[in-house]
Amino acid sequence: STGGDPANTDLGFKAVAVSTANEVVVPEGYSSLAFLAWGTPITGSYPEYQADGTNTGADQEQQMGMHHDGVHFFPIDQKAGGNSSTEGLLVMNHEYINQDAIHASGPTNAGDNGGVRPADEVRKEIAAHGVSVVHIKRDTNGTWDIVFGSPFNRRITGNTEMDIRGPVRSYSKLITQYSPDATETRGTLNNCAMGPTPWGTYLAAEENWHGYFANGDTTQPREQTRHGVGSATRYDWELADSGADQYVRFNVTPTGASATDDYRNEANTYGYMVEIDPFTPESKPQKRTALGRFGHEGVIFAPAKEGEPVVCYSGDDSRFEYIYKFVSSQPYYSATAGGYLLDEGTLYVARFNEDGSGDWLALDLDDADFASKVAAAEGTMVGDIQFDGFENQADVLLNTRLAADIAGATPMDRPEWGAVDPNTGEVYFTLTNNTQRTEDQVNAANPNANNATGHIIRWTEQGNDHSATSFDWDIFVFAGDENTETVVDGQVIVSLTEDNMFSSPDGLWFDYNGRLWIQTDNGYLKETFGNDMMLAANPETREIKRFFVGPQGCEVTGVVSTPDVKTMFVNIQHPDGNWPNAAEDRPRDATVIVTKDDGGVIGA
Ligand code: FEO
Ligand code: CA
Ligand code: CA
Ligand code: CA
Prior knowledge:
Helices cover 9% and strands 29% of the residues. With 604 residues, it is mainly β.
Protein backbone atom coordinates (compact mmCIF):
# COMPACT_ATOMS: atom_id res chain seq x y z
CA SER A 1 0.00 0.00 0.00
CA THR A 2 2.99 2.35 -0.23
CA GLY A 3 5.12 3.93 -2.92
CA GLY A 4 8.43 3.04 -1.34
CA ASP A 5 10.33 0.04 -0.17
CA PRO A 6 9.26 -0.95 3.34
CA ALA A 7 12.52 -2.79 3.92
CA ASN A 8 14.56 0.27 3.10
CA THR A 9 14.43 3.01 5.72
CA ASP A 10 17.77 4.53 4.73
CA LEU A 11 18.05 8.30 4.76
CA GLY A 12 19.11 9.32 1.25
CA PHE A 13 19.22 13.11 1.62
CA LYS A 14 21.95 15.51 2.74
CA ALA A 15 21.24 16.89 6.22
CA VAL A 16 20.40 20.58 6.46
CA ALA A 17 22.15 22.89 8.91
CA VAL A 18 20.50 24.59 11.87
CA SER A 19 18.95 27.89 10.78
CA THR A 20 17.65 31.11 12.27
CA ALA A 21 16.33 32.50 8.98
CA ASN A 22 12.67 33.46 8.63
CA GLU A 23 12.05 30.81 6.00
CA VAL A 24 11.61 27.07 5.61
CA VAL A 25 14.78 25.11 4.88
CA VAL A 26 14.64 21.70 3.14
CA PRO A 27 17.47 19.54 1.69
CA GLU A 28 18.99 19.98 -1.76
CA GLY A 29 16.66 18.50 -4.35
CA TYR A 30 13.52 19.29 -2.34
CA SER A 31 11.01 22.14 -2.54
CA SER A 32 8.56 23.64 -0.07
CA LEU A 33 5.46 25.79 -0.44
CA ALA A 34 3.11 27.29 2.17
CA PHE A 35 -0.53 26.21 1.81
CA LEU A 36 -3.79 26.66 3.75
CA ALA A 37 -2.56 29.58 5.82
CA TRP A 38 -4.71 30.87 8.69
CA GLY A 39 -7.69 32.76 7.29
CA THR A 40 -7.80 30.95 3.93
CA PRO A 41 -11.51 30.54 3.06
CA ILE A 42 -12.50 26.89 2.91
CA THR A 43 -16.28 26.65 3.20
CA GLY A 44 -19.65 28.43 3.22
CA SER A 45 -19.46 31.69 1.29
CA TYR A 46 -15.64 31.46 1.19
CA PRO A 47 -15.03 34.92 2.74
CA GLU A 48 -11.77 36.35 1.46
CA TYR A 49 -8.89 36.68 3.93
CA GLN A 50 -8.40 40.31 4.96
CA ALA A 51 -4.73 40.98 5.64
CA ASP A 52 -5.62 43.90 7.94
CA GLY A 53 -7.32 41.62 10.47
CA THR A 54 -10.85 42.88 9.75
CA ASN A 55 -12.46 39.49 9.05
CA THR A 56 -15.44 38.96 11.39
CA GLY A 57 -16.26 36.05 13.66
CA ALA A 58 -18.67 34.75 11.02
CA ASP A 59 -15.90 34.92 8.40
CA GLN A 60 -13.51 33.00 10.65
CA GLU A 61 -16.09 30.22 10.98
CA GLN A 62 -15.62 29.63 7.23
CA GLN A 63 -11.84 30.02 7.10
CA MET A 64 -8.79 28.05 8.23
CA GLY A 65 -8.22 28.39 11.97
CA MET A 66 -4.98 29.42 13.63
CA HIS A 67 -2.05 27.51 15.11
CA HIS A 68 -2.05 24.44 12.89
CA ASP A 69 -1.05 21.29 14.76
CA GLY A 70 -1.73 17.56 14.20
CA VAL A 71 -2.76 16.74 10.62
CA HIS A 72 -3.81 13.69 8.63
CA PHE A 73 -4.38 13.04 4.91
CA PHE A 74 -7.35 10.78 4.14
CA PRO A 75 -7.24 9.50 0.53
CA ILE A 76 -10.54 10.51 -1.10
CA ASP A 77 -11.20 6.90 -2.11
CA GLN A 78 -10.23 5.41 1.27
CA LYS A 79 -13.77 4.28 2.11
CA ALA A 80 -13.82 2.29 -1.13
CA GLY A 81 -10.48 0.68 -0.32
CA GLY A 82 -8.51 3.11 -2.49
CA ASN A 83 -5.23 4.82 -1.86
CA SER A 84 -5.24 8.12 -3.76
CA SER A 85 -2.13 10.25 -3.47
CA THR A 86 -3.56 13.05 -5.59
CA GLU A 87 -6.87 13.83 -3.88
CA GLY A 88 -8.01 13.62 -0.29
CA LEU A 89 -9.30 15.23 2.86
CA LEU A 90 -6.65 17.06 4.82
CA VAL A 91 -7.86 17.29 8.42
CA MET A 92 -6.00 19.36 10.97
CA ASN A 93 -6.16 20.82 14.45
CA HIS A 94 -5.92 24.50 15.40
CA GLU A 95 -4.45 24.38 18.86
CA TYR A 96 -4.75 27.96 20.04
CA ILE A 97 -4.43 31.53 18.73
CA ASN A 98 -2.21 34.58 18.41
CA GLN A 99 -4.55 37.09 20.00
CA ASP A 100 -2.50 40.05 18.75
CA ALA A 101 -2.55 38.90 15.13
CA ILE A 102 -6.17 37.80 14.89
CA HIS A 103 -7.76 41.25 15.36
CA ALA A 104 -7.23 44.45 13.37
CA SER A 105 -5.41 46.14 16.24
CA GLY A 106 -5.04 43.49 18.91
CA PRO A 107 -7.63 42.25 21.40
CA THR A 108 -9.89 44.55 23.39
CA ASN A 109 -8.95 43.59 26.93
CA ALA A 110 -11.73 43.37 29.49
CA GLY A 111 -9.65 45.40 31.94
CA ASP A 112 -9.61 48.39 29.55
CA ASN A 113 -13.24 47.95 28.53
CA GLY A 114 -15.43 47.98 31.62
CA GLY A 115 -14.79 44.31 32.41
CA VAL A 116 -16.19 42.94 29.16
CA ARG A 117 -14.89 41.87 25.75
CA PRO A 118 -16.66 42.60 22.44
CA ALA A 119 -18.67 39.48 21.60
CA ASP A 120 -17.55 39.35 17.97
CA GLU A 121 -13.89 39.31 19.00
CA VAL A 122 -14.69 36.33 21.23
CA ARG A 123 -16.68 34.65 18.47
CA LYS A 124 -13.71 35.03 16.12
CA GLU A 125 -11.25 33.63 18.65
CA ILE A 126 -13.44 30.59 19.36
CA ALA A 127 -13.85 30.03 15.62
CA ALA A 128 -10.08 30.11 15.08
CA HIS A 129 -9.82 27.08 17.38
CA GLY A 130 -10.95 23.55 16.55
CA VAL A 131 -10.49 21.47 13.43
CA SER A 132 -10.53 22.06 9.66
CA VAL A 133 -11.53 19.47 7.07
CA VAL A 134 -10.29 20.51 3.62
CA HIS A 135 -10.88 18.63 0.38
CA ILE A 136 -7.69 19.06 -1.63
CA LYS A 137 -6.57 17.87 -5.02
CA ARG A 138 -3.34 17.92 -7.02
CA ASP A 139 -3.63 19.07 -10.61
CA THR A 140 -1.61 17.68 -13.51
CA ASN A 141 1.06 20.36 -12.96
CA GLY A 142 1.59 19.04 -9.44
CA THR A 143 -0.12 21.99 -7.73
CA TRP A 144 -2.36 21.27 -4.74
CA ASP A 145 -5.52 23.30 -4.36
CA ILE A 146 -8.75 23.38 -2.35
CA VAL A 147 -11.75 21.78 -4.06
CA PHE A 148 -14.11 24.75 -3.85
CA GLY A 149 -17.70 23.92 -3.06
CA SER A 150 -16.89 20.39 -1.93
CA PRO A 151 -19.44 19.14 0.63
CA PHE A 152 -16.55 17.77 2.71
CA ASN A 153 -15.04 21.19 3.45
CA ARG A 154 -15.91 21.93 7.04
CA ARG A 155 -15.00 23.86 10.15
CA ILE A 156 -15.45 22.44 13.63
CA THR A 157 -14.84 25.06 16.30
CA GLY A 158 -14.85 25.73 20.02
CA ASN A 159 -18.62 26.14 19.69
CA THR A 160 -19.69 23.10 17.60
CA GLU A 161 -22.29 20.80 19.18
CA MET A 162 -20.89 17.43 20.28
CA ASP A 163 -22.05 14.25 21.98
CA ILE A 164 -20.53 12.73 25.10
CA ARG A 165 -20.00 8.98 24.55
CA GLY A 166 -18.68 6.10 26.59
CA PRO A 167 -18.82 5.48 30.34
CA VAL A 168 -18.90 9.17 31.34
CA ARG A 169 -22.01 9.89 29.23
CA SER A 170 -25.00 10.78 31.44
CA TYR A 171 -22.83 11.00 34.58
CA SER A 172 -24.22 13.57 37.03
CA LYS A 173 -20.91 15.46 37.16
CA LEU A 174 -21.39 16.47 33.49
CA ILE A 175 -24.85 17.99 33.95
CA THR A 176 -25.03 21.56 32.66
CA GLN A 177 -27.75 24.06 31.87
CA TYR A 178 -27.15 23.17 28.22
CA SER A 179 -27.35 19.42 28.76
CA PRO A 180 -29.40 18.47 31.84
CA ASP A 181 -28.98 14.78 30.96
CA ALA A 182 -25.18 15.12 30.60
CA THR A 183 -25.07 13.75 27.08
CA GLU A 184 -23.95 16.80 25.09
CA THR A 185 -21.57 19.75 25.10
CA ARG A 186 -20.30 22.46 22.78
CA GLY A 187 -16.87 22.77 21.27
CA THR A 188 -13.42 21.27 21.31
CA LEU A 189 -10.40 23.36 22.34
CA ASN A 190 -6.63 23.30 22.43
CA ASN A 191 -6.50 20.46 19.94
CA CYS A 192 -2.87 19.49 19.80
CA ALA A 193 -2.15 16.22 18.03
CA MET A 194 -4.55 13.64 16.69
CA GLY A 195 -4.84 10.12 15.41
CA PRO A 196 -6.54 8.56 12.43
CA THR A 197 -8.65 5.52 13.38
CA PRO A 198 -8.54 2.20 11.53
CA TRP A 199 -12.08 2.96 10.22
CA GLY A 200 -11.27 6.25 8.52
CA THR A 201 -12.21 8.82 11.14
CA TYR A 202 -10.10 11.40 12.97
CA LEU A 203 -9.58 11.78 16.70
CA ALA A 204 -8.64 15.30 17.86
CA ALA A 205 -6.97 15.63 21.28
CA GLU A 206 -7.97 18.19 23.90
CA GLU A 207 -4.69 19.19 25.57
CA ASN A 208 -4.45 22.38 27.65
CA TRP A 209 -8.22 22.90 27.91
CA HIS A 210 -8.01 23.89 31.57
CA GLY A 211 -6.90 27.41 30.63
CA TYR A 212 -10.24 28.19 29.02
CA PHE A 213 -12.29 27.83 32.24
CA ALA A 214 -12.47 30.08 35.30
CA ASN A 215 -13.63 29.17 38.78
CA GLY A 216 -13.92 32.10 41.18
CA ASP A 217 -14.53 29.95 44.25
CA THR A 218 -11.74 29.55 46.80
CA THR A 219 -12.16 25.78 46.76
CA GLN A 220 -12.59 23.74 43.58
CA PRO A 221 -13.53 20.14 42.89
CA ARG A 222 -10.68 17.67 42.29
CA GLU A 223 -11.59 17.28 38.62
CA GLN A 224 -10.56 20.93 38.21
CA THR A 225 -7.65 21.24 40.66
CA ARG A 226 -5.78 18.22 39.30
CA HIS A 227 -5.68 20.07 35.95
CA GLY A 228 -4.99 23.60 37.15
CA VAL A 229 -8.25 25.39 36.35
CA GLY A 230 -7.67 28.92 37.67
CA SER A 231 -9.68 31.95 38.70
CA ALA A 232 -9.25 33.63 35.28
CA THR A 233 -9.16 32.31 31.72
CA ARG A 234 -6.54 32.66 29.04
CA TYR A 235 -8.69 34.80 26.71
CA ASP A 236 -11.57 36.04 28.94
CA TRP A 237 -14.26 34.57 26.68
CA GLU A 238 -16.64 34.28 29.64
CA LEU A 239 -16.61 38.09 29.73
CA ALA A 240 -18.14 38.57 26.25
CA ASP A 241 -20.39 41.63 26.42
CA SER A 242 -23.39 39.89 24.87
CA GLY A 243 -23.70 37.67 27.95
CA ALA A 244 -24.65 34.86 25.57
CA ASP A 245 -24.82 31.37 26.95
CA GLN A 246 -22.08 30.01 24.65
CA TYR A 247 -19.60 32.45 26.26
CA VAL A 248 -20.86 32.50 29.86
CA ARG A 249 -20.29 28.71 30.03
CA PHE A 250 -16.52 29.22 30.38
CA ASN A 251 -17.18 30.54 33.88
CA VAL A 252 -17.48 27.35 35.93
CA THR A 253 -18.12 29.06 39.25
CA PRO A 254 -21.33 27.61 40.72
CA THR A 255 -23.92 30.39 40.70
CA GLY A 256 -27.27 28.62 40.60
CA ALA A 257 -29.07 26.30 43.00
CA SER A 258 -28.00 23.17 41.10
CA ALA A 259 -25.94 21.96 38.15
CA THR A 260 -28.83 22.43 35.72
CA ASP A 261 -28.86 26.17 36.53
CA ASP A 262 -25.25 26.99 35.59
CA TYR A 263 -22.01 25.72 34.05
CA ARG A 264 -20.16 24.44 37.12
CA ASN A 265 -19.62 21.16 35.24
CA GLU A 266 -18.70 22.56 31.81
CA ALA A 267 -14.97 21.80 32.29
CA ASN A 268 -15.90 18.17 32.91
CA THR A 269 -17.03 17.97 29.28
CA TYR A 270 -13.44 18.71 28.14
CA GLY A 271 -10.21 16.71 28.29
CA TYR A 272 -11.18 13.94 25.89
CA MET A 273 -10.37 12.53 22.47
CA VAL A 274 -12.97 13.79 20.00
CA GLU A 275 -13.98 11.64 17.03
CA ILE A 276 -14.78 13.42 13.77
CA ASP A 277 -15.92 11.59 10.64
CA PRO A 278 -14.53 13.71 7.79
CA PHE A 279 -16.35 11.65 5.16
CA THR A 280 -19.75 12.43 6.75
CA PRO A 281 -19.94 16.23 6.77
CA GLU A 282 -23.22 16.38 8.71
CA SER A 283 -21.91 14.06 11.46
CA LYS A 284 -21.75 15.35 15.03
CA PRO A 285 -18.35 15.04 16.74
CA GLN A 286 -18.23 12.46 19.54
CA LYS A 287 -16.20 12.83 22.74
CA ARG A 288 -14.90 9.32 23.51
CA THR A 289 -14.63 9.26 27.31
CA ALA A 290 -13.46 5.64 27.63
CA LEU A 291 -10.01 6.86 26.49
CA GLY A 292 -9.77 8.92 29.69
CA ARG A 293 -9.83 12.59 30.60
CA PHE A 294 -6.48 14.36 30.86
CA GLY A 295 -4.23 16.67 28.83
CA HIS A 296 -4.41 14.47 25.73
CA GLU A 297 -1.53 15.24 23.37
CA GLY A 298 -2.75 12.89 20.65
CA VAL A 299 -3.47 9.23 20.03
CA ILE A 300 -1.83 6.46 18.03
CA PHE A 301 -3.57 3.25 17.03
CA ALA A 302 -1.83 -0.08 16.76
CA PRO A 303 -2.50 -1.75 13.38
CA ALA A 304 -6.01 -3.22 13.57
CA LYS A 305 -6.34 -6.98 13.19
CA GLU A 306 -9.53 -8.85 12.31
CA GLY A 307 -11.18 -10.36 15.35
CA GLU A 308 -8.83 -8.69 17.85
CA PRO A 309 -9.37 -5.70 20.15
CA VAL A 310 -8.63 -2.18 18.97
CA VAL A 311 -5.66 -0.71 20.84
CA CYS A 312 -4.53 2.90 21.02
CA TYR A 313 -1.99 4.89 23.05
CA SER A 314 -2.22 8.45 24.36
CA GLY A 315 0.21 10.67 26.24
CA ASP A 316 -0.69 13.30 28.86
CA ASP A 317 1.61 16.22 28.12
CA SER A 318 2.29 17.76 31.47
CA ARG A 319 5.29 17.39 33.76
CA PHE A 320 5.23 14.10 35.69
CA GLU A 321 2.12 12.86 33.88
CA TYR A 322 1.58 9.49 32.26
CA ILE A 323 1.24 7.36 29.13
CA TYR A 324 -2.05 5.47 28.66
CA LYS A 325 -3.36 2.61 26.53
CA PHE A 326 -6.95 1.74 25.68
CA VAL A 327 -7.95 -1.82 24.73
CA SER A 328 -11.48 -2.27 23.37
CA SER A 329 -13.84 -4.88 24.79
CA GLN A 330 -15.23 -5.74 21.39
CA PRO A 331 -13.17 -7.17 18.55
CA TYR A 332 -12.36 -5.27 15.37
CA TYR A 333 -13.93 -6.41 12.10
CA SER A 334 -13.17 -4.14 9.16
CA ALA A 335 -16.67 -4.54 7.72
CA THR A 336 -18.42 -3.19 10.81
CA ALA A 337 -15.74 -1.21 12.66
CA GLY A 338 -16.71 2.21 13.99
CA GLY A 339 -16.48 4.61 16.88
CA TYR A 340 -18.57 2.31 19.07
CA LEU A 341 -15.38 0.27 19.56
CA LEU A 342 -14.00 3.17 21.59
CA ASP A 343 -16.93 3.26 24.03
CA GLU A 344 -16.26 0.04 25.93
CA GLY A 345 -12.92 -1.27 27.05
CA THR A 346 -10.11 -1.00 29.55
CA LEU A 347 -7.93 2.06 30.08
CA TYR A 348 -4.42 1.21 31.29
CA VAL A 349 -1.56 3.42 32.46
CA ALA A 350 2.13 2.60 32.02
CA ARG A 351 4.61 1.69 34.74
CA PHE A 352 8.19 1.60 33.43
CA ASN A 353 10.19 -0.67 35.75
CA GLU A 354 13.86 -0.08 36.52
CA ASP A 355 14.95 -3.33 34.82
CA GLY A 356 13.63 -2.41 31.36
CA SER A 357 10.34 -4.21 31.75
CA GLY A 358 7.01 -2.45 32.01
CA ASP A 359 3.44 -3.10 33.09
CA TRP A 360 0.07 -1.79 32.01
CA LEU A 361 -2.02 -1.04 35.10
CA ALA A 362 -5.79 -1.20 34.59
CA LEU A 363 -7.77 1.84 35.77
CA ASP A 364 -10.92 -0.14 36.28
CA LEU A 365 -12.90 -0.70 39.48
CA ASP A 366 -13.59 -4.25 38.29
CA ASP A 367 -9.84 -4.94 38.34
CA ALA A 368 -8.98 -6.48 41.72
CA ASP A 369 -5.53 -4.88 41.93
CA PHE A 370 -6.83 -1.39 41.13
CA ALA A 371 -9.85 -1.78 43.44
CA SER A 372 -7.59 -2.72 46.35
CA LYS A 373 -5.31 0.26 45.71
CA VAL A 374 -8.36 2.55 45.62
CA ALA A 375 -9.63 1.09 48.90
CA ALA A 376 -6.21 1.57 50.51
CA ALA A 377 -5.98 5.19 49.29
CA GLU A 378 -9.37 6.21 50.68
CA GLY A 379 -9.03 8.77 53.44
CA THR A 380 -5.42 9.62 52.49
CA MET A 381 -3.83 12.48 50.58
CA VAL A 382 -3.06 11.59 46.95
CA GLY A 383 -0.78 14.41 45.89
CA ASP A 384 -2.69 17.55 46.85
CA ILE A 385 -6.05 15.80 46.87
CA GLN A 386 -7.80 14.45 49.97
CA PHE A 387 -9.06 11.21 48.39
CA ASP A 388 -12.56 10.17 49.39
CA GLY A 389 -13.13 7.44 46.84
CA PHE A 390 -14.69 7.11 43.39
CA GLU A 391 -18.46 7.01 42.93
CA ASN A 392 -18.25 4.67 39.96
CA GLN A 393 -16.20 3.95 36.82
CA ALA A 394 -17.37 7.22 35.23
CA ASP A 395 -15.82 9.04 38.19
CA VAL A 396 -12.56 7.09 37.68
CA LEU A 397 -12.40 8.20 34.04
CA LEU A 398 -13.38 11.81 34.85
CA ASN A 399 -10.41 11.82 37.25
CA THR A 400 -8.03 9.76 35.13
CA ARG A 401 -4.87 11.45 36.46
CA LEU A 402 -5.89 10.80 40.05
CA ALA A 403 -6.69 7.17 39.21
CA ALA A 404 -3.25 6.79 37.62
CA ASP A 405 -1.59 8.31 40.70
CA ILE A 406 -3.33 5.69 42.84
CA ALA A 407 -2.40 2.88 40.45
CA GLY A 408 1.31 3.72 40.79
CA ALA A 409 2.11 4.74 37.21
CA THR A 410 5.52 6.17 36.25
CA PRO A 411 5.59 9.99 36.11
CA MET A 412 7.15 10.93 32.77
CA ASP A 413 8.98 13.92 31.27
CA ARG A 414 5.93 15.28 29.41
CA PRO A 415 4.70 12.57 27.01
CA GLU A 416 3.87 14.09 23.63
CA TRP A 417 3.25 12.18 20.39
CA GLY A 418 3.43 8.43 19.96
CA ALA A 419 4.08 6.40 16.81
CA VAL A 420 3.98 2.70 15.95
CA ASP A 421 6.70 1.26 13.68
CA PRO A 422 4.83 -0.34 10.75
CA ASN A 423 7.67 -2.85 10.25
CA THR A 424 8.22 -4.02 13.84
CA GLY A 425 5.19 -2.99 15.91
CA GLU A 426 7.40 -1.11 18.38
CA VAL A 427 5.75 1.89 20.02
CA TYR A 428 7.69 5.17 20.31
CA PHE A 429 6.86 8.22 22.43
CA THR A 430 8.52 11.60 22.67
CA LEU A 431 9.24 12.91 26.18
CA THR A 432 9.73 16.53 25.34
CA ASN A 433 11.51 17.88 28.45
CA ASN A 434 11.04 18.39 32.17
CA THR A 435 13.26 20.96 33.81
CA GLN A 436 11.45 20.45 37.12
CA ARG A 437 12.63 16.86 37.65
CA THR A 438 15.10 16.77 40.53
CA GLU A 439 17.89 14.25 41.23
CA ASP A 440 15.73 12.38 43.72
CA GLN A 441 12.90 12.06 41.19
CA VAL A 442 14.81 10.32 38.38
CA ASN A 443 13.88 6.80 37.29
CA ALA A 444 15.29 4.54 34.60
CA ALA A 445 12.81 5.72 31.96
CA ASN A 446 13.31 9.39 32.87
CA PRO A 447 16.94 9.29 34.02
CA ASN A 448 17.92 12.96 33.64
CA ALA A 449 17.34 15.56 36.33
CA ASN A 450 16.62 19.00 34.86
CA ASN A 451 15.83 17.34 31.53
CA ALA A 452 15.92 20.44 29.31
CA THR A 453 16.16 18.71 25.94
CA GLY A 454 14.08 15.53 26.25
CA HIS A 455 14.33 11.99 24.91
CA ILE A 456 12.42 9.37 22.94
CA ILE A 457 11.38 6.12 24.59
CA ARG A 458 10.12 2.97 22.86
CA TRP A 459 8.78 -0.43 23.81
CA THR A 460 7.71 -3.79 22.46
CA GLU A 461 4.54 -5.34 23.85
CA GLN A 462 4.90 -8.86 25.22
CA GLY A 463 4.62 -11.27 22.31
CA ASN A 464 4.26 -8.21 20.06
CA ASP A 465 0.59 -8.27 21.08
CA HIS A 466 -0.66 -4.71 21.56
CA SER A 467 -3.29 -5.82 24.05
CA ALA A 468 -0.66 -7.42 26.33
CA THR A 469 -0.31 -6.16 29.90
CA SER A 470 3.49 -6.07 29.96
CA PHE A 471 6.26 -4.81 27.70
CA ASP A 472 10.01 -4.28 27.34
CA TRP A 473 11.27 -0.73 26.87
CA ASP A 474 14.46 1.12 25.99
CA ILE A 475 15.48 4.68 25.23
CA PHE A 476 15.75 5.26 21.47
CA VAL A 477 17.68 8.51 21.72
CA PHE A 478 18.51 11.33 24.11
CA ALA A 479 18.05 14.72 22.48
CA GLY A 480 20.56 17.49 23.15
CA ASP A 481 23.59 19.39 21.95
CA GLU A 482 26.44 18.00 19.82
CA ASN A 483 28.06 14.92 21.40
CA THR A 484 24.98 14.01 23.43
CA GLU A 485 25.27 10.24 23.74
CA THR A 486 22.75 7.42 23.86
CA VAL A 487 24.47 4.47 25.48
CA VAL A 488 23.10 0.92 25.31
CA ASP A 489 24.80 -1.95 27.15
CA GLY A 490 27.93 0.17 27.61
CA GLN A 491 28.13 1.10 23.93
CA VAL A 492 27.54 4.53 22.44
CA ILE A 493 24.78 3.86 19.91
CA VAL A 494 24.10 7.50 19.04
CA SER A 495 26.32 10.54 19.47
CA LEU A 496 24.64 13.66 18.12
CA THR A 497 26.45 15.90 15.63
CA GLU A 498 25.84 19.26 13.97
CA ASP A 499 23.72 17.35 11.43
CA ASN A 500 21.22 15.99 13.92
CA MET A 501 21.41 17.73 17.29
CA PHE A 502 17.92 18.68 18.39
CA SER A 503 15.97 19.64 21.47
CA SER A 504 12.48 18.95 22.83
CA PRO A 505 11.03 16.29 20.51
CA ASP A 506 7.25 16.67 20.20
CA GLY A 507 5.66 15.54 16.90
CA LEU A 508 6.48 11.94 15.95
CA TRP A 509 5.30 10.00 12.93
CA PHE A 510 6.23 6.85 11.05
CA ASP A 511 5.71 7.27 7.33
CA TYR A 512 4.24 4.43 5.30
CA ASN A 513 7.70 2.98 4.57
CA GLY A 514 8.90 3.06 8.16
CA ARG A 515 11.07 6.17 8.40
CA LEU A 516 10.54 7.98 11.67
CA TRP A 517 9.96 11.75 11.58
CA ILE A 518 10.74 13.80 14.69
CA GLN A 519 9.52 17.38 15.14
CA THR A 520 10.69 19.82 17.78
CA ASP A 521 9.07 22.34 20.11
CA ASN A 522 12.17 23.93 21.55
CA GLY A 523 10.68 26.96 23.23
CA TYR A 524 14.09 28.13 24.41
CA LEU A 525 17.77 27.19 23.84
CA LYS A 526 17.36 28.87 20.43
CA GLU A 527 21.00 29.99 20.49
CA THR A 528 22.20 26.41 20.18
CA PHE A 529 19.46 24.79 18.14
CA GLY A 530 18.14 27.68 16.04
CA ASN A 531 14.56 27.53 14.78
CA ASP A 532 12.40 24.49 15.39
CA MET A 533 12.95 21.60 13.02
CA MET A 534 12.05 18.15 11.74
CA LEU A 535 14.47 15.25 11.49
CA ALA A 536 14.21 11.80 9.96
CA ALA A 537 15.42 8.66 11.68
CA ASN A 538 16.11 5.10 10.62
CA PRO A 539 14.59 3.13 13.50
CA GLU A 540 16.81 0.14 12.89
CA THR A 541 20.21 1.88 12.82
CA ARG A 542 19.22 4.99 14.81
CA GLU A 543 20.78 7.14 12.12
CA ILE A 544 19.17 10.59 12.41
CA LYS A 545 19.40 13.54 9.98
CA ARG A 546 17.92 17.02 10.07
CA PHE A 547 15.51 17.34 7.13
CA PHE A 548 13.62 20.58 7.67
CA VAL A 549 13.95 23.83 9.63
CA GLY A 550 10.96 26.12 10.15
CA PRO A 551 10.79 29.91 10.11
CA GLN A 552 11.47 32.15 13.12
CA GLY A 553 9.43 31.78 16.30
CA CYS A 554 7.52 28.77 15.05
CA GLU A 555 7.02 25.30 16.36
CA VAL A 556 7.07 22.52 13.74
CA THR A 557 3.91 20.62 14.63
CA GLY A 558 2.02 18.07 12.52
CA VAL A 559 3.30 15.88 9.70
CA VAL A 560 1.73 13.42 7.29
CA SER A 561 2.20 12.42 3.66
CA THR A 562 0.16 11.03 0.84
CA PRO A 563 0.18 7.19 0.75
CA ASP A 564 2.98 7.19 -1.86
CA VAL A 565 5.13 9.35 0.48
CA LYS A 566 5.75 11.77 -2.40
CA THR A 567 3.87 14.77 -0.97
CA MET A 568 4.47 15.66 2.66
CA PHE A 569 2.39 18.11 4.70
CA VAL A 570 4.24 19.78 7.59
CA ASN A 571 2.47 22.22 9.89
CA ILE A 572 4.01 25.47 11.10
CA GLN A 573 2.53 26.88 14.29
CA HIS A 574 2.90 30.37 15.80
CA PRO A 575 5.43 31.80 13.30
CA ASP A 576 6.78 35.33 13.81
CA GLY A 577 6.98 38.42 11.67
CA ASN A 578 5.28 38.17 8.32
CA TRP A 579 5.90 34.53 7.40
CA PRO A 580 4.82 33.09 4.98
CA ASN A 581 3.87 36.18 2.97
CA ALA A 582 6.46 38.96 3.12
CA ALA A 583 3.92 41.34 1.55
CA GLU A 584 1.61 41.00 4.56
CA ASP A 585 2.20 42.47 7.98
CA ARG A 586 1.05 39.66 10.26
CA PRO A 587 2.18 36.04 10.69
CA ARG A 588 -0.03 33.19 9.48
CA ASP A 589 0.19 29.59 10.60
CA ALA A 590 0.34 27.39 7.53
CA THR A 591 0.83 23.89 6.15
CA VAL A 592 4.08 23.47 4.21
CA ILE A 593 3.92 21.12 1.25
CA VAL A 594 7.26 19.36 0.73
CA THR A 595 8.07 17.49 -2.47
CA LYS A 596 11.19 16.00 -4.01
CA ASP A 597 12.07 17.74 -7.26
CA ASP A 598 12.47 14.44 -9.10
CA GLY A 599 9.04 13.31 -7.86
CA GLY A 600 10.55 10.63 -5.64
CA VAL A 601 9.86 9.29 -2.19
CA ILE A 602 10.55 11.83 0.54
CA GLY A 603 13.49 10.94 2.75
CA ALA A 604 14.72 8.17 0.45
FE1 FEO B 1 0.38 21.02 22.33
FE2 FEO B 1 2.04 19.08 24.06
O1 FEO B 1 2.00 20.16 22.66
CA1 CA C 1 2.67 19.07 20.60
CA1 CA D 1 5.21 20.72 22.93
CA1 CA E 1 2.29 23.88 20.64
